[in-house]
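Hi support team,

I submitted a single chain yesterday and got back a structure, but I'm not sure I'm reading the token output correctly. Could someone confirm the output below corresponds to the sequence I sent? I've pasted both exactly as they appear in my results page.

Thanks,
R.
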Amino acid sequence: MTTRAKPGPGPGRVADDRPSGRADLVLPQEYIADATTRIHDARRRVRVMALTIADEHETEALLDALIAAAHRGVDVHVAADTFTYADAAGRFVPKRYLTKRQRSSMAMAKELTDSGVTFDWLGQEGGLPWRGRTHTKFCVVDDTVYSFGGVNLDDRGATNVDYMVRIVDHRLAEHLVRVYTRTRDANTPLRGFRSSSLTYGTDEVLIDGGIPGDSIVYRRALTYASKAQRIVLVSQYCPTGELGRVVRSKHHEMWFNPPRNARLFNRILIAASMAVTGHRTLYRKHQYLHAKVMVFYLASGKRVAITGSHNFVRGGVTLGTREIALQTRNPLVIDQIEAFISSQVRR
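Hi R., thanks for writing in. Yes, this is the structure output for that exact sequence:
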């Protein structure tokens, strides 16, 4: 664990001339840097939720900012899934043996708690790797929201091919604060809440609450895939279930990691999914692909995108992972998604 100096004052506030409600795609390192600056400037509240949060090189300044904000009296809450330290490679180690990752994670949580941050571990170590996992990822700083992407807060998350969507909007921030509380309060693998949606202008925020078999994100993706003439799918994993079959039946592009890009557990999972489904990936880069988005091109000429934390695999639906996504028709957002795919995924 890094020994930290006593937190000092954050950087001066930089005027934000982005109009309220505008959505900007930000790459992982930009997300972490921008959130760090805003947390240093926070006046009222900070909420951070991710599958993995670690005290590593790329996140050290962000953790310092959380500690400094708590010392100033800002209401700071942080939640990470136990998958942070109980990854698939370490799940077969007896509990009495603490790995280096576990020790570091526990020390991080203690330092945050000692500084006045309210910290919660979500889920449990035991059981299937994705059973009851909180895969939701977002950060709320006052009225600024970062979400609807896949970025985890550790060195690996900062260097993946991924993004988050940044939106300054009071109503959306209020809603995600409520989602944070509801998710934290449903903190057992066998407990969840019904999936739901929030209308956000002409778009919708989709929330999977963790009940096995109940995923509004997967259902909406299936609905639009059935209507679409053409589909572009980007995911960490090979798509499975009915959604994968529908995508394959349409004019489509599938971009997901080849098995060689993944670590042992994910390599086996991707290879097995490809063998069962017959899907093939167009992705050729060695950098790990972690973004999760589908763009649907309808016969009317309209475009719809679903972007968020869901990998569009049936297994997560069956096991009840908690997820968040944005269903959008906003051409400015979809243009940015298409530009990300062109520059970061296809090349």
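A quick pointer for reading it: The chain has ten helices and 14 strands. Let us know if anything else looks off.

Best,
Support desk
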